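User: quick one, fold this
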Amino acid sequence: MIRRKQQAKQVIFSHLLSWFLRGFFQLLYHQLAWIYDFIAWIVSLGQWQDWIQAGIPYLDLDSTLVVEIGFGPGHLQSALIKKGVCTFGIDQSPQMCRQASRRLCKQQLRSNLVNARSQQLPFPSNSIPQILSTFPSEYISDPLSLQELLRVLSPGGKVVIILFAWITGKNILERFMAWLFHVTGETPAWNEQYLDPIRDIGFLVHTEVATLPRSNLMLVHLQKPVES
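Assistant:
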């Protein structure tokens, strides 16, 4: 009986903590966007920039265009532009659009940033060869978002999603953050059945885990079938 009560308390605590953090992250991406980088650096234990740029090796940088959905403060946009990639960025947060625009302007980089929703992408059908999204929120699993991704991708086009991270370091702080990510659902136990709705929409799907020195990243790859 005592053990059951303790387990119930742990469940309630984890739900409350998850609810609080989700609300906080929502504010962080909008009203508190000006401290986003600082908080991201803290919760990732300094690994944020490595996580953000981990999707670049999976892109064909000689392609004509890369679209980033959820560009946040604009770090990945900056990295892609410096590599000579033609890139567009889509984000629904006006605050993040301002943050990213200022960052690129200071670096004297020409930006193509659009304040728009993933459920209504401002591109013609079959026009985008590659899409990248790093740590997207729940919008990425919205059927309307998935249908839009499928619509705008050119035949054979791909989407690279960095879905979440596991902190794997062994010191006390790293173990604490790994525990915190787990209890709040930021790094859930993975089940391939989560991908069934994506396959049902028409994507070819596979996953892989990218290994970094102190963390692992879950990547989801979507591809639009080549039409015969």
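User: anything notable?
Assistant: Helices lie at 2-29, 36-43, 48-53, 75-82, 94-106, 143-152, 172-183, 196-201.
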